[in-house]
Specification:
This protein is an alpha+beta fold. It folds into 4 domains: 199 residues, no CATH class; 124 residues, no CATH class; 89 residues, no CATH class; 47 residues, no CATH class. The protein has 16 helices and 12 strands. The strands form 4 sheets. It has a 6-stranded antiparallel beta sheet with strand order 1-7-8-10-9-3. 49% of the residues are buried.
């Protein structure tokens, strides 16, 4: 197993003069050297063939290589690996939290892929770092499975995301209080190797800005432009302004992807926002089932609902505003930053119209189409209708067949009374939609294909992940690999896999891990 490394992050940005996991405040540094803590019995549970290919690795070779599990559990290093934990801060639930940093994540190095891509490899659950505070730096199997699966599922849905290379069991127990209710219990431990061109996040700039460290602020901007926005590197103030604007645009399109498929991140703190516009840090996420824009999967957010499904675009803008404030010392005046934030609004407008057009099978999303879509959202909420099932059925329905009525949507309703309440207005809406499609430049086949590619058949519902977790905790990781295989083709009908495309079963309505999750999830 050979991977080439070029650790520019360490070479070009200042590091902590002290190494090791002693918890401390780290000033003037973007990173601290720290070694992963070895585990008792590393065992490869799952790997992503597509992610492995980005590194020039073959999935079959990975499975047969006993060193792979050792390396990606943190028990051994390949030549060129120089482990570190990153230093950053952030706003958590709207309040400034100061220094945070990688408390249970350790980056191994920046790998160079065969296609020239640069991939930071990071072990999550690899042990204590200077930023672990009072925690143990470990991760449990359930949260690791969720991150591994969702990273790859989001990629195959076409949404910008970090990737996941591997899931390794540690052979050790980790004690967690899942709901912070005073009932901790031991659980199997695991380590995920996740990948991204960089794991820099909004909070990477916020921390030095809060300390008045303009030199580090400048260094981080130069590094990310040089390696991840290379056409902007060395262009001075003009390059800085365009860089921030592109971050805003990428963030808008990312969140639009979430809204299209019903994904709720659950904890959109500024330290969980990628500077590249990638979905990052999969914790208490979830998929909207019975449509509710006020739903959040995060127990910590159950009262304030700051990060509920419907507010994700507004939260993204607020987070970008905090980033703009952090970057202000690099600019001569606020006009370039205001222009960048305006680019978010413009990108969101384009992205949302595109979302509506794709989900409804239209050539473009006009103002009238946005109103049509909003009317549907109200009906879905009133009728407690499964979002994924409804839109998938909508794309398969023959709009000219009025006799079909609501029959194609029979499996999408969770409550009979709510269904009865919306049946008549929903029939009216379907007639309006059919009439709109009849006037559209796209023909029926084009409309159906556009909807098929926008409305997935399979999403990583929490209860599906929980089924895989239950099996894995009993020693059978087969459910993880089976679910990963389904999620590799979310827009294709897969014979024999109707279970994965079904509505939430009753047993999952209130079960822990299926309905609500904590930040330890």
């Amino acid at each position: 197993m050979h991977i080439e490394f070029d650790n520019a992050f360490l070479r070009e940005l200042p590091g902590d003069p002290e190494s090791g996991p002693r918890v401390r405040e780290v000033l003037g540094a973007a990173w601290s050297r720290v070694e992963p803590t070895p585990v008792a019995a590393p065992r490869l549970l799952a790997a992503s063939a597509e992610a492995a290919a980005l590194l020039g690795l073959d999935a079959a070779t990975i499975s047969a290589d006993p060193d792979f599990a050792r390396v990606f559990a943190g028990n051994a290093l390949l030549p060129g690996m120089q482990p570190w934990a990153a230093n950053y801060g952030g706003h958590q639930f709207g309040s400034w939290a100061g220094q945070l940093g990688d408390g249970r994540a350790i980056s191994l190095g920046e790998a160079l892929g065969p296609d020239g891509g640069r991939w930071e490899l990071q072990l999550k659950g690899a042990g204590k770092t200077p930023y672990s505070r009072f925690a143990d730096g470990r991760a449990v199997l359930r949260s690791s499975i969720r991150e591994f699966l969702c990273s790859e599922a989001m990629h195959h849905l076409g949404i910008p995301t970090t990737r996941a290379l591997s899931l390794v069991g540690t052979g050790e127990q980790v004690v967690r209080d899942m709901f912070y209710d005073g009932h901790p219990r031991p659980e199997p431990g695991a380590v995920v190797c996740r990948m991204a061109p960089t794991f820099l996040r909004f909070g990477s700039w916020q921390l030095p800005a809060s300390r008045g460290d303009t030199a580090l602020l400048r260094g981080l901007a130069d590094y990310v432009q040089r390696y991840h926005f290379p056409d902007l590197a060395g262009r001075g103030a003009e390059g800085d302004a365009e860089w921030f604007a592109r971050v805003c645009e990428r963030t808008a399109w990312m969140v639009a992807g979430w809204m299209r498929v019903g994904f709720v991140h659950g904890v959109m703190n500024t330290d969980n926002m990628s500077i590249l516009g990638l979905t990052i840090d999969y914790g208490p996420y979830g998929w909207v089932e019975d449509y509710d824009p006020d739903w959040t999967p995060n127990t910590t957010d159950a009262q304030g609902r700051r990060y509920r499904f419907g507010t994700q675009p507004q939260v993204a803008y607020w987070n970008l505003l905090q980033l703009a404030q952090a970057l202000a010392p690099l600019f001569d005046g606020v006009a370039p930053l205001e222009a960048g934030l305006a680019r978010f609004g413009q990108a969101w407008e384009r992205a949302y119209r595109d979302l509506v057009a794709r989900k409804l099978g239209l050539a473009r999303g006009s103002d009238d189409d946005l109103r049509l879509f909003a009317d549907l959202q109200g009906l879905l909420q009133d009728g407690q209708v499964d979002m994924t099932l409804f839109f998938r059925a909508l794309g398969q329905r023959d709009g000219a067949d009025a006799e079909a009525g609501l029959a194609p949507f029979a499996g999408a309703f969770y409550d009979a009374d709510a269904q009865a309440r919306v049946e008549a207005p929903l029939r009216d809406w379907l007639a309006r939609h059919a009439a709109r499609q009849a006037d559209d430049p796209l023909d029926a086949a084009q409309q159906r294909e556009k909807m098929r590619l926008a409305n997935p058949c399979y999403v990583l519902r929490n209860w599906l992940a929980q089924e895989a977790i239950d099996r894995a905790e009993q020693g059978d990781p087969g459910g993880v690999t089976e679910l990963l295989e389904v999620m590799r083709h979310p827009y294709e009908e897969q014979p024999g896999r109707a279970h994965y495309a079904g509505a939430r079963p009753e047993w999952a309505r209130h079960r822990a891990g299926c309905s609500m999750l904590s930040c330890s999830s």
